[in-house]
Amino acid sequence: MSSRTVNTREVIGEVLLTLGVLLLLFAFYEAYWTNLDAGRKQSQAQEQLNDAWTNPRTNHTPSLGDAFAVLRIPAFGADYQYAVVEGTDDAALLTGPGHYSDTQMPGAPGNFALAGHRVGKGAPFNDLGRLKACDEIVVETREATVTYRVLPMEGGAGRRGDMEGCLSGPALDRVAGGDYAGVLGRHITVPSDVSVIAPRPGQQGEKVSPDLLPMLTLTTCHPQFSNAERMIIHAVQTDITPKR
C-alpha cells in the first residue's frame, strides 16, 4: 500500500470527522441554544401581551412582531400556552407562533392561519402530528376566547361520525358532506401551496365573505429537521365567548 493511498484515506477520514462534529454542534445549537433564546423572547411577548390587555389605550391592531393572542392546545398538556405574534418572518417565529398577516383574525369568517417551528426555536408546533379529529384548540384575544376543533383526518362518509361529538347543525353538514368536505384535519403538502391559508382552505383566490366558516390553520415544517414539506392542521370554530 502506498503512502499516497494512506494519506488520502487519512484526509478523507479527518474531513468526515470534522463534518460529524459540525453537524453535532449545529444540532446542539438548533435543539438547545435556539430554544433558550426563543424561551426568553416568548416570556417577553407574554409580558407585553399582559400589559396590552390591561391598558385600555393600547391599539387593538397589532403591528409586525406584536403579541396579540394566546394559543392553547389542551391535548398537549395544561402548561401548553404560547403568545401569538403578528407576522411570519424569522424574528416573529423565533418568538412563537406567528400570524399570516394576510389571513383573518380569530373568530372572523375565513381562515386565521399561524406558522410555527417544529424543531428548535421553541418548537411550539413539534407535536402537531399527535392531534386527532375534534381535539380542541383555543385562541384567546383581548376581546374573546375562541374554540376550534380539529377536522377529520380523512374524507368520505366517516367525517360526520368523526365530528358529531363536537360539531352540530349546518356547520356539521358543511364539514361532513358540503363545501368543506374536502378540508382535512391534517395533511402534508409542499411549501409553495399557499391555498392552505386561503379564506376557505384549498380554494386559492376565493374572497372573504360572511358565509365562510371561521377556521384555524396551523402550518409547520415536515418532516422534523427538514424544510422539504409542510404539515397542515385545519380546525373549525365551534364556540366564541366574548370577554365583555
From TrEMBL:
Gene3D superfamilies: Sortase
InterPro entries, A to Z: Sortase, Sortase_Class_E, Sortase_dom-sf, Sortase_E
One Pfam family, short name: Sortase
Transmembrane segment boundaries: 12-33
Active site per database record: H117 (proton donor/acceptor), C221 (acyl-thioester intermediate)
Superkingdom assignment: Bacteria
Keywords, ordered alphabetically: Hydrolase, Membrane, Transmembrane, Transmembrane helix
A GO molecular function held by the record: hydrolase activity
CDD domains to which the protein is assigned, alphabetical: Sortase_E (cd05830)
NCBIfam families: class_E_sortase
Protein name: Class E sortase
